[in-house]
Structures are given as C-alpha cells and as structure tokens.
Amino acid sequence: MADAEPSIGGVSDLRNASDPEPDTGTADPKGSSVEAEADPSAERSKALKGEGSRTFTMRELLTELKEDANGDEANDGDSRTPSTVASFSQDSSHQQQFSQNDISMDLINNITGVDEEGRSRQKILTFAAKRYANAIERNPDDHDAYYNWALVLQESADSLGSDSSSSSKDALLQEACKKYDEATRLCPTLYDAFYNWAIAISDRAKIRGRTKEAEELWKQATQKYEKAVQLNWNTPQALNNWGLALQELSAIVPVREKQTIVRTAISKFRAAIQLQFDFHRAIYNLGTVLYGLAEDTLRLGRPVNAKEVSPNELYSLSAIYIVAAHALKPNYSVYRSALGLVRSMLPLPYLKVGYLTAPPAKNPIAPHTDWERSQFVLNHEGLQQVTKADKLLVRHSSGRLQGSPQVDSSVIKVDVPDIVSVAACADLTLPPGAGLCIDTIHGPVFLVADTWESLDGWLDAIRLVYTIYARGKSDVLAGVVTG
User: Fold this and answer.
1) Cα pseudo-dihedral 324, 327, 332, 336, rounded to 10
2) pTM score of the predicted model
3) What is the DSSP code string of 371-384?
4) Domain ranges in the chain?
5) pLDDT in tens, 182-211
C-alpha cells in the first residue's frame, strides 16, 4: 500500500448499540440492564413513593422518572393539606441540605439544556439524581441506587452542549465512575455497572487524546470490560467495545507493546462475531484493525517468516470483513467509503482464495496419504476446490484472478444454501493440522487448514458468506466481487 492512501477509521463510538451514522436509529445509549436480584439477607431500602430501587436502562429510567416528576408537579398546588405541605417542605429542606454537601448534585444542578427539549430532559435527570441521593441517604447499601445515579450522571455528561468545557463533562463522568465503583463494591456481580463504567472511563480517555493519562484510562476501561464479560460471557457488544478500547490503547503505547494489544483486540472482535454472526459493527471493526496491522507490518519493512501472515494477506483479510459489513448494511456511508479503499485488495472475482488439505471428493474417510493440499475459492455462491486440470489461479495485471474452477463432480464443492454449520474440528481421524468441518444437508465436509490462524480466516469467511445469504443480501456481495 502506498503511504498516500487514507487509512480506515474504526467505529470509535463506544456507546452500546451505536451506529456509524447517527440518523439511522434511536438506540438506547447505555445498553440493556438486568433486574437486580433481591437480597434475602436484608430488606431493600424504599425509594420515593415507597418503591425499592432497581436497575434500569436509561430509557426506562427517563420514562418512569418523567411520569413521577409530572405526578409530583400535579400534587404541588394549593390543594395540598397543611400536613402534606409541611412534610414536603421538610423533605425538600433535608434534600437540599444533602445536595449542597454532595459534589455530584452540585454538578448536575449547574447543567442547563441547550434547547427546550434539553432543558426538559435535564429537569428529569435532576429529579432522578435527587431521588437516588435520597435513597442512598436512607440506605447507604442500596447498590441499585448507586448504579442508577451513575447512569444519570453519565447521561448528564452526554447532554452537555459542544460549547461546554471538557472539564465539566469529565467531572460528571468522574463522579459517575465513583458511583459505579461503589455499586460494584456493594454488588460485585452487577454486570451492567462494570459495562457502563467502562464506557464512562472510555469517554474520559477520549477527552485526553493520546496522552499518558489517556493510556492509563484506556487500560482501566479494558479491565472493566473484561470483568463485564467474565460476569456475562454472552455479550457481543461488550466484546466489541473491549476490542475498540484495546485498539485505542494500541495507538498510544510504545511500539514494542502494540502488536500484542492489537492481536488481543482482534480476538475480542472475532469472539463478538462468533456470538452474533451478523454483528456488522464488530465485523467492520475487525476489518479496520487488520488493515492497521497490515500497514504496521509493511511499515516495519522486515522479512515475514513462514509462521507470520504477510501484509498482503492481512490486507485481503481486512477487505473480507469490510465487504461483509457493507453487504449486511449497504446503506452505511462509513462502510461504503471503506469498501472503495479495500475492494481492490480482494482476489476478485472471489472473496477468498487459499489452500486447504482435502480428501478425495467421494471418499471423506480416505487414508491420510490420499489427502492433498489444493487451492480453494470462496464467493457468494459457495466454496469450491480448484481442479487439477485447471491452472492455479493467477493474478492478472488488472488485479483480477485469471482461471476459473470448472464444475466437476470429482472435486469438493459446497453451495452456501446447503450449509448447516461451520466449526473447527479436532477429530483425531483427520490428518495433522487445523481441522475444519462444514456440515451440510448432504453430510459433513472435512478439510484441514495450514495453520490455526489460517483456519480462523476460513471459518469467519464461510460464516459471513452464509450469514449474508441468510439475511437476503447475497446480491450485494455478488455485486462487490463480480461487479
């Protein structure tokens, strides 16, 4: 790659369910939340209106609090009985005194919305902050109140206008982190707190650019994501965000540490995709980190040994993931732009070309001596072995591969619609190497990749092609590889 070519940027927004294009959806900015389990050893403290605190998503929180706030306003008229007014006055005085002594309340009280909608939203958030401050005053061990208060602080930081100082946002995020810290101290299994805590730390790191302080914050964020995944392994978004935090960290650390961090980020994106095959953000992010790794490897200028993946192979792998993300979400301008940069790196008119060791087509249990290493091609239609009669596919000066595998019953061919599952295989009856099993409606197909790293590339590519087919987007992929 020439140095003049633009590099690809990752989907850097660490918000849960964030889109590369802000106008494509109205995703919940703080992710899903799990109902906290009741503590059998002690009764929960009662929040306002006699209800126990519980964890919310931010959308649930705002909806409920808006209803509560409106209800309180409706009861604030002169029709209240003297005893009600006196009680309200005493509570307000006590709450005001508590707020003045708490830096979190001071920060929230100083926020004003940039427009009418923002002011209305901030009014609800201020009401929420007072509610949770009051709940914590009544019961300092209410971890749900700490968690929900942290969400309010985090949302308040997001609501600050572009003209607000970064120090104001950072102060709110810092207070949110303190609340998450306390919530997890009281309830060490609160997955949502660790997840959103990591997001808050990441936002603080972004404010600081590529500084030593930012490096430390990114390291903290990765630790919180790791804890969140330990508590709930089935969380592709947390794995994706973990990978993004590592990617950001790799841009700051010394060169000697970068390769290890980048490869760890690759493993997190890949794990996210394995949990959710159509997770286009993780697919795209994996493409960007592979692209960056290719550029770093090329920049070093040292010979690549047999066990390492060459820069050209990394560029080609990067292109596969970016093309797949585009096929799943063809209307995303970020993906379209990246596609224009990497399409020429594909082995067109195929998505992937490489070598696999295979048995004779009609004899999957043939002796190991009958298995042969041969070239395979993958496109939107399926995986096919290149016949012996064909010349090996060679790249033309135009960038496209010349030679086309013929339809031959004596070679292995797997059509995408026939695929049932694709998985790594450690069957001891296979020849030595990284085993691959493609289960089809006609029975399993066993192959062996050259290395385990090569196997990961084949697994992902075949799964992505099938996922694109299952989502009805094969025509988009076909347009990329054959157009």
Assistant:
1) 80
2) 0.77
3) -EEEEEEE-SSEEE
4) 51-187, 352-482
5) 999 999 999 999 999 999 999 999 999 999
Tally helices (H) and strands (E) across the chain.
Answer: 15, 9
Tokens of 371: 């298995």
Cis peptide before 311 (omega within 30 of 0): no
CA distance 251 to 371: 44
Could you say which of 3.40.50.2000, 2.30.29.30, 1.10.357.10, 3.30.390.50 is the CATH number of the domain covering 352-482? 2.30.29.30
Element spanning 446, H or E: strand 443-449
- CA 291, CA 349: separation in Å to the nearest integer? 21
- Cα separations (Å) of 32 from 28, 55, 156, 222, 348? 8, 10, 18, 19, 41
Residues contacting 29, CB < 8 A, separation 6+: 15, 16, 18, 58, 155, 158
The per-residue pLDDT for 390 is 58
Rounded to an integer, what distance in angstroms lies between the CA atom of residue 317 and that of residue 466?
Answer: 17
Tell the burial category of 274 from Cβ atoms under 10 Å away from its Cβ (0-12, 13-18, 19+).
middle
H-state helical runs in 160-190: 166-186
Cα separation, 80 vs 88, whole angstroms: 10
Q: CB neighbours (10 Å) of residue 167?
A: 9
> For residues 338 and 6, is the Cβ–Cβ distance under 8 A?
no
Determine the average pLDDT of the residues in 406-429. 86
